[in-house]
């Protein structure tokens, strides 16, 4: 049993260390982030056979190229590219030159412009002319064109020869312009011969010219490997890679698994026995980064004594709550019905601002938005739902911004209504930016989701707040406002049993609140703590001078040691009464620390008048010294108010002297060593306290007495 108790003590002391608390809370939050988001990045594999029916709709978990399909399309495109041919202009010019030479030679022979070898020779007969023509034309021409064609040329008139030459050359140019392949030669010859057939030339002359046309038409379009390769390359470049997009439906439920579908399942890794762990590693890195940022942020606040373990627990519980809530909603969210818009995410941001502080609420809002974009990614690894992330962060930031002043529960309602407007505007923003066309009914229904989200968040905030305040005993502004009500039983007890102390506490509260607001501390906490700081005086109210109305001072009949014992006991009595009524620890601590370990000078010097050998420690408060700014401020304001009240003539100079004297005394006595007050803040406090006291103890008009008024009549 003793070993168990020792082990328990070690565990408790271990977790009481601030660093351990921070690490534990961050680890829990990061752990729940990872566990809840794991399914959204986890790649599931399937045992599917070809030509079977799909048991469920399967989407691609990644964006990847289907290389097989891309290669198939490339082959199809390359095969569809026709062979490219290059037209030879040399062939065209060569063949037309042959035709021109024939007609020019015929013309010269007919006109006698040709030079003969013998002067006595003259070409008179057509046979002689043909024979001479055959001697001077190209040998290739003689192989294709017979004597009848040459004879017809000499028998024709000059006009017929000119027309024939024009028709033949024109037909040749038309045929060669588009290129003539080997297999197209016969067709080109027929086309050219037909052009002469429909001319005005004699049919017999046209028939005689056919061999000449057949000789003139030769292939001039030849296969070009370079042009063909270039065309194939252009076709290859025009083919876009076949991509399978993340979230794309590969097969619908009940659909037959064809070869193509099976191939896509294989490409996306959905048939692999070995899972892809890269998305899991990515998620682990993401939550690790969030955990590091969270640790340094919380560490920053704990160093300033702005966070205690109960608030860390609240952050942890709220983080688990919102992540689980988003996960549950994600089960029912589809692309057609975006239910993430109904998620009351503003609940956590408002609770964090009320229970912790605004900065923590903003930082955590960013974290929740990042995790929300993963949770609402439709279980597609690598995809982040940016719309969900933007909606979550806008909704939370709006609730934080509009919850600027927390006076009562109505402030939460106002913040919820303002957040509903921001939610609806954000949703309309998504719809307007979308390429899809939406009807007014869609705008109203989806905007209604945002409105409902804010309303649910408001209700949840108001319902959950008391549980955190009472269960974790976290002191929120709403709790402080409730404690500041004059109808509180303890304040009524103070008012009835110690009215002078009650009035003194009100004055200290005003001074403390003004001072804290000047230096950036929690003015509301200081004010409420000041109301209760002297509650212990209700145990023996008449032993304190502010409650001694028209009665003798009982300390005149007591030994200084007895008087000191009574006075020194009142901070302890205050703490006991506050603990009994289960008030927040922050208020109890301020009540216990508001005198620190200061010296009860009046009775100390009174005791020294009787005996020089007086132990100073007997006349000092037990403490502890103020640990926070608010406790230090209440301590200073308590002494200053009492001293200012004792001034016979509270002039401005006297007030400034009293304030400076008390501040200097507290510094020299080391009462502010444990607090985080700086000299600059003390100077700011001094100015505010002096201005406030001058307003309280300002000069007033001296009204004439009734007897003087009668004499004046």
UniProtKB/TrEMBL annotation:
Organism: Gracilibacillus salitolerans
Domain of life: Bacteria
Presence of the UniProt keyword Membrane in the record: yes
Name under which the protein is recorded: HDIG domain-containing protein
Ranges for domain HD/PDEase: 497-652
InterPro entries recorded: HD/PDEase_dom (IPR003607), HD_domain (IPR006674), HDIG_dom (IPR006675), Metal-dep_PHydrolase_7TM_extra (IPR011624), Metal-dep_PHydrolase_7TM_intra (IPR011621), PgpH_phosphodiesterase (IPR052722)
NCBIfam families: HDIG (TIGR00277)
Stretches that traverse the bilayer: 20-38, 277-296, 312-332, 360-378, 384-405, 417-435, 447-468
UniProtKB keywords: Membrane, Transmembrane, Transmembrane helix
